[in-house]
Amino acid sequence: MKPLIKICGINDFDVLNELLDLDGIDFLGFIFYEKSIRNVSLELLEKIKGLQFNDKRPVCVYVNSERNFIEKTSSYFQNPIFQFHGNETNEFCDSFKNEFWKVLRIKNKINIDEVYKYKNASGILFENYKKDTPGGTGESFDWNLINNIKDLDTKFILSGGINCENVDNAKDINPWCLDINSGVESSPGIKNINLIKKLLNKI
Known about the structure:
By secondary structure, this protein is α/β, with parallel strands linked by helices. Helix content is about 25%, strand content about 25%. The strands form 2 sheets. An 8-stranded parallel beta barrel has the order 1-2-3-4-5-6-7-8. Strands 9-10 form a two-stranded antiparallel sheet.
């Protein structure tokens, strides 16, 4: 079965408009984390306000953010999913009444107890652990570890350096969704539409 596709780390309005016209993309991710080179600017937020996403759904990405910051930035989007990358509890994530995904960073094994902690999450996103880097590492963990949790009734999202060269391997894991970010950039933080089209065609 073909996985759903999320293109994450969008920080340019022209790129966003091109992505909205492409078939095969289900989610568009926006990072609200100042230390990220893909951090969304206030200028971009103002342009997004009232924008129709049609068949694509926005995902707002946060790392241990304050409640008022989450509420304010997400208000620019219609019905966004929240994606939490930090140490947020299930209760905190669920308190916004928005659908949410929780990110778990994988070092050398998948902790099933950690997955169960986030019982209200509509998806669990697995990505590579890198010290002091809460995401966007551009590196993969051992995707075979996913086989240990295949029996769990959980929609899982696979991320970490997925690109045109390794996307077939990523698909073989049978994730519910693929999270694509640095693997379709011409340089860090700069999305390449041709690479995105090439990857979508491969999928």
